[in-house]
Amino acid sequence: MAVFVLDKKGKPLMPCSEKRARQLLERRRARVHKLTPFAIRLVDRLVEDSILQTVRLKLDPGSKATGVAIVRESSSPDGDCDLRVIALGEIIHRGALIRKKLTARRSMRRARRNRKTRYRAARFDNRRRPAGWLAPSLRHRVVTIETWVRRYCALAPITALSLELVRFDPQKVENPEINGVEYQQGTLAGYELREYLLEKWGRQCAYCDATDIPLEIEHIVARAQGGSDRASNLCLACHPCNQKKASRPLAEFLKNDPERVSRILAMAKAPLQDAAAVNATRWALFNLLKSFGLPLETASGGRTKYNRQRLQLPKTHAFDATCVGRFQTVSGWKMPALQIKCTGRGSYQRTRLTACGFPRGYLTRRKSVFGFQTGDLVAAEVTAGKNLGRCVGRVAVRASGSFNIQTSIGVVQGISHRYCKVLQRGDGYGYSLVAQQPGKETEKG
């Protein structure tokens, strides 16, 4: 993975290799500017004295995660565009957690009103929604992507943006046979049912969990038994399972595994929340990226999939972002991706509640404990006790001064604040490097 480079005034230069960054630091020509994403700042160069190349930031927005890729563009002798990957990333959203907390808060307030106890008066009747309003769980996705586009633009000389402008059609996915007036009453946009099923069922066989093999569309209730082509009656199966099940009922085919039967039926009727979330935010994200004033390229999900299959790249969010848009070749993609998990900056709520809304515990009123806050990246050199050694990770503070540190291999508990040193202040995100596992496209036409 390349290292981001800034000039002595903090303006972005072309990234360099890890070896070159190490040499600059050893010769004291650079200083560490930021640990995650890792960036150095030169002490003897300005951006005016450097040559910058074309660097493009690519985005593959999703409901639960967004892929990010920073690539360097160059033109080949035959006029095609060749890409060199500089950095890969995956932003893990927490929209589902936001929605869950809002639902819990709403239910607690309604319970208080029903008990006719003291409560905050309802305010939903005196609030107006502005144009372009999005629910908090959806707005979070747009704001998070905006934050990281700005951060990457401050670390690399981004000259252009690419966005996969996904268009989902929930009606066509749910009922492929819909037409006429029924269809005109809904959203008119194209969507591939096969790709939806691949995402919904995790690209594995619903009956045996087989992966990395061609999968076929399977009717849970066979057409011969009156089953329909609705998405709620479709799943993915490998060829042996598909042939073995034939037109038998699901309960009979999996009579020795009733838990799997229940899981398949529950998954089949899962709502199209992810598709609705992407639909609701796609134009807000498009207009947001246009406001940056950089050339913006948009591409369809079909082109992204075509590029990934043509180049035989694994199916990950980061590689999907790499394959957005028009280009001929890509190199340097064999690198880990920086996983950016949205954790938030804590909660204003300092009282823990039971399921019925009654207090069951209290959090400390101070977020800072002995100079540390939950979310800080710390290094602990433990010289005594059962946790002897060094550990680096995200800290969770306690008022007693005995902290927990979330490392890449697990949680280390009970580390005294005296052994901890702050490496980077918490910014509402958790970071980890994720190796890009090789895989195959699991689809059979």
Short description:
By secondary structure, the protein is of the alpha+beta class. The chain has helices spanning 18-26, 95-114, 136-155, 170-174, 180-184, 193-200, 239-245, 250-253, 258-268, 273-290, 301-311, 317-322; strands at residues 3-6, 12-16, 30-34, 39-42, 55-60, 65-75, 81-92, 158-164, 215-219, 234-238, 296-299, 329-331, 337-342, 351-353, 359-362, 377-382, 389-396, 402-407, 410-416, 420-424, 429-434.
Molecular structure report:
The protein has helices spanning 18-26, 95-114, 136-155, 170-174, 180-184, 193-200, 239-245, 250-253, 258-268, 273-290, 301-311, 317-322; strands at 3-6, 12-16, 30-34, 39-42, 55-60, 65-75, 81-92, 158-164, 215-219, 234-238, 296-299, 329-331, 337-342, 351-353, 359-362, 377-382, 389-396, 402-407, 410-416, 420-424, 429-434. The chain is α+β, with helices and mostly antiparallel strands and 445 residues long. The strands form 5 sheets. Strands 5, 6, 7, 8, 11, 12, 13 and 21 form an 8-stranded mixed β-sheet that branches. It has a 5-stranded antiparallel β-sheet with strand order 19-18-17-16-20, with no helix packed on it. A 4-stranded mixed β-sheet has the order 2-1-4-3, with helices on both faces. α2 packs antiparallel against α3 and α3 (136-155) packs across α10. The longest helix has 20 residues, at 95-114. The model is unreliable at 180-191 and 439-445 (pLDDT under 50).
